[in-house]
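Trying the structure run again after the queue cleared.
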Amino acid sequence: MGNAIMITGASGGIGAAVARAVAAAGDAVLLVDHRAEGIERLAAELRSEGRQALAHVADIADEDAVHDTVGAALDAWDRIDGLVNCAATMISTPLTETTLADWTRVLTVNATGTFLTCKHVVRAMVGQGLGGSIVNLSSISGRVGLPNQPAYCASKGAVLQLTRQIAADYAGHNIRCNAVSPGSVRTDQLRTYLAAQPDPIAAERQLVDSHPLHRIADTSEVAAVIVFLLGPRSSFITGADIPVDGGYTAV
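Done. Tokens:
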């Protein structure tokens, strides 16, 4: 077995792509999501390929559930070498139409959930004394203001600052913490967003045109950067935010 990596939001999208890429590199993976079906199916798929994969159903906004999830990883492999926080939710509404319930839901999953998983994984990493690498999924929405995303932009901005704070606080324990900020990526979330637009084809064209590379990313392209940040070739990188955005934030 290589390293032991915990991945939240692993039932689909970028999280599932990360799980496949990490497992292909020879690492053991603990797949975490509040939806059982997706992670159990993926874990079974990976095991059928000879990989070490476990599924653990948990709500990352519930601290007791996060504590139990970290315990499950330690029970299985006696250590945690890496954490990838992909779990997130998004509500697209103007500020004046965003309810307190909407705001609370997005901040709770995206910001509080990331805080809780980092808190308990870092505690485990410090205790085992082996260092480790954490990668938090932020977004271009955490770097720039985007229309109709007040809660999502705020939550992803919080993830960026939390990443930097952890990097500064735990470098002495050889724990690295970095963020990845994707632009538009072909996920179910993006497909749902496009389907809700008055003209989905025009909406997709606008997204494509907003990225200087003039296309939408595949989940595997984001996963490749995350795998790099987890591994030894990025050993002198911490507190960084890597934009995987086709040049969106460069212009």
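The first strand starts at residue 4 and ends at 8. Worth checking whether this holds up in the mutant runs.
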